[in-house]
Amino acid sequence: MSLANNSWLDRRWLPEPRPVSPAFSSWLDCLRWVAAALVCITHVRSAMFADYDPAAGSSLAARGFYLLHGYGHQAVVVFFVLSGFLVGGEVLRGLQRAEFDWSVYAIRRVSRLYPVYLAALLLGALWDNLGLHFFNVHQLYSHAGSPFPMIFYPVVERLTLTVLGGNLLFCQDILVPTFGSNSPLWSLANEAWYYALFPLFLWPWFSTGPRRGRLIGLALFAAGVWFLPGVVLTYFSLWVLGAGLRFLPRRLIGPAWLPPLLFATMFLLGRLHWLDGWMVFQRDLLLALLLALWLNALEHQSTGAPGKAVWHQRLAGFSYSFYLVHWPLGLFLTAVLEKLTGHGYRMGFGVGAVLIYGAVLAFLYVFAWLVAQVTERRTARIREKLLALIPRGAPAGTVPST
Description:
Elements (H helix, E strand, L loop, with lengths): L21 H27 L11 H9 L3 H25 L5 H33 L26 H8 L17 H21 L4 H17 L2 H15 L13 H14 L8 H20 L9 H8 L2 H23 L9 H24 L4 H9 L15
Helix pairs in contact: 1-3, 1-11, 1-12, 3-6, 3-8, 3-10, 4-12, 4-14, 6-7, 6-8, 8-10, 9-10, 12-13
């Protein structure tokens, strides 16, 4: 096979770009905001409610409540696959059309990540410091022995400039811990590195740029692989799996009902601890594969939108903000309620406790929406301003300076 324009590999090996139908886009939006909601309720429940105790003879309502509030980790797996499909698809499209430009790609990623991320770090520092100095009930912010898994370390030890700087460089859980109480930020570091690794590996093979630049790209990819911990690289495979869906021109499984049924079954079995004998990554990989099958079916069938598309779009429109800001504020509100009312921290299940919890969730949603109005909603405007800084006529596909 002849190579096009002196690239090392023929671009015809890359998938033909496919438009995303409105119905499929609505499904993607639905999965995004539902995954963010599952992460939030899992985290906030762990602080506000005592752990489920089967020996206490809990009611059916309590069992259902606790069953729903334990899918946070699985939801992050969903995020990785969706991100690979969307962002990886952007990279593949640019390479296939010989239009991939490192400057444009970097600006698109930076403008997407940083506005919300900077706000989340600053707000997290605010809530953590207020909680530490004024509402440190049960020593939540200064003791390593909390009874719930979200805070397994003294928060005060992570409120340093060194940790903040490492988080700004997306090195949390690589060189430094996550900043303050915001332990969910670990997944954002993974995402940022996956954004870099994927094109650094693919671009040199399909670029027509200078050989030296392509070799530099591969060298940077190798340096990233050497630098990153094994667990980050392992979960990169789930992200790549999402991108790999772009190579599938047709549906793999015939019955439309089968992929979502398999995915939901795996989702539930993991929550019921039926697969506890498996390694965590084995469970996550199977879940990702089943999600990929479902996405493949949704993309290649005439399924309608899941309800009102506009609501999925609106809820997904601030799901990134919600994910980044929910936990430090949720923990702070828990501490405030506990100090002022004696209720809010590790409560027993009951109508009153659920109402308090519902009010906290509603507040978190409203606050995240407000944050999104000054961050996520301005992404396009920030991107346009940054793109305007690129010199006109700059050669496309060059390796960024190191």
